[in-house]
Fold DNA helicase RecQ.
Amino acid sequence: MLENLLPLLKSTFGFTAFRGVQDQVLTRVMERQNTLAVMPTGAGKSLCYQLPAIASDGTVVVISPLIALMHDQLRSAEAVGIRAATLTSADDNRAETIARLKAGELDLLYAAPERASGEHFRNLLEQTRISLFAIDEAHCVSEWGHDFRPDYRLLRPLLDHFADVPRLALTATADKHTRDDILVQLGIEQDGLIIAGFDRPNIRYSISPRKGLTRQIADLVERLSGPGIIYAPTRNATEKLADQIAKTGRSARAYHAGLPPEVRQRNQADFVASEDMVMVATIAFGMGIDKPDVRFVAHAGLPKSIEAYYQETGRAGRDGDPAEAHMFWGAEDFAKARQRLTEVDEQRLNSERTRLAALGGLVEAAGCRRAILLKHFGEEPPQSCGNCDNCLNAPITRNVTELARKFLSAVYRTGQSFGVGHLEAVLTGRQEDKVLSRGHDQLSVFDIVDTEEAPLIKPVSRSLLLRDALRNTEHGGLMFGPEARAILKGEAEVAIVEPPKRERKKRRSGSS
Ligand code: ADP
Ligand code: ZN
């Protein structure tokens, strides 16, 4: 059946084959079955409704949450000759669009959910031949998703009113809860779920601690050619880094929400057209940008979550050629993120904490980064991928389970309220006032860590915090987190990456 679409795929889009699950999704759509397609960014979701839009009689109605996104999509649809229009409050050609729609002259119509759910829109669609409802960013319909939009809940009556028009929901958000909820909310059968693999094998992941970021970025930019994106945490940082890169002779621009719209647009257009420009941007940059040949994405600070990291690094190498993702993180990023947690609603606190701990697990991992990412999205990947920093160059790790147990015991015995400094004093048997005055020299954990192990106490406590075996109390002390139990019971091991010893000195003597 899909063979019939191949000539159209070639003549309209210039592609010779379907990619990934596109053929599965399109088969269902062409058979007029309801479908939820979970496909990562860059997998080619738009094609799944654009192709049916030109292949079938009638109009495909696309529900999309953001006007800016819609206009981007409109431009790319029109660029390949699809007859498309948007119907939003920002359009002043609404009368014309409505006339084209009624005359059957539109392949694609983009509308926002709040408009789509109105009486007026329903009447309009009744006078139109509709071939498909495509619901983009479908996770917005679920409260489990990270971006719930109540307007999406109003779509269901519209969909049910046109019960014989098939539905295609699309999202890049993968977790199971959200998927199940989307199916229920949009009335799509369980067997209509199609999930694309999340692996992006051509992206090489590397994650390292920040040590002289300017130098690290300069090295990266010098080594890697082709267009690249560097995500920086603040507007100020984007401009500073862009300046520094520009000074090395590589073309570089900054992009953030504080720049005048015309500057932003120009920088974005220049980047899209360029072959070796570096865009230093806040996360405001990237959504809806169609540039398949981005060769690297770097993070100058910790991303918001594993999902965000995956999404942002996913902008590299969409053409399938080798690409790199680099993250430079610092312990202070985690401190700041934890600080932000204190402002989070009680309700969301747990899931936000889990998100942060998962991110901690990724950056501190000694094993395959890709395996961690894919497991996070519910896949069962092989243990090593051969194309990430840890697979290519295994870090030296040290098993510190015994020390971690001692540390946790000390946290427990002292009442789960002291900070790492005090715990270290107790564990190493320092006869200090604060220890003696509390009688902590009488505890069984007093003086059980020898001088050889003592320097590992701080890294171990950090690692326990990252994996949620420890949490900070309100007053800066440490208390148990949910992962503590398994370690104490001997069910989980703790290993830390051995910091490279005196690397600096070696380098200095080497260069002299
Ligand atoms: P998504 O919306 O899933 O993030 P897009 O629809 O923007 O992804 O597509 C990502 C890129 O992949 C675009 O550059 C698109 O032109 C390209 N693409 C989509 N389908 C194919 C295909 N079958 N063959 C080659 N390239 C494709
Ligand atoms: Zn790997």
Observations:
- DSSP finds 23 helices and 17 strands in the chain.
